[in-house]
Amino acid sequence: MSIDIITPRFCETDALGHINNVSYAAWLEQGRTGFFTRNAPHKHSPLMLVKLEINYRHESFHGTDVEVHTHLTKLGNSTFTLAQTIFQKQVVVVEAISVLVRFDSQNKRSLPFDDVSRAHWSALLK
């Protein structure tokens, strides 16, 4: 699992002082970036986000850091599925599922895992 700490900015709030719903997608991206930065064994192929499912569980506010927890739950032929949870004051604010595909940008198609990469990422499955 990977944990990223984010300090909500005032500009991410709405008129009621709640964090605006679009801010969570950016925070989840920061969590995914942190996960791959910390866990990739070497420079990896580009990744393309193909699915993002966000379930809002509780309101959150400016003034208190949030934690974005990210872990790998599934490997496909060329895809990663990540489960992500955002906490504020130990309360679940958001639960999300992200699916990313390894992408060969030159040939415009998905890029399957080789055996070495599959073994590396399989060791991180939760």
From TrEMBL:
InterPro entries: 4-hydroxybenzoyl-CoA_TE, HotDog_dom_sf. The keyword Hydrolase applies. Keywords: Hydrolase. Pfam families: 4HBT_2. One of its GO terms (molecular function) is fatty acyl-CoA hydrolase activity. It comes from the Bacteria. Belongs to the 4-hydroxybenzoyl-CoA thioesterase family. This is Acyl-CoA thioesterase.
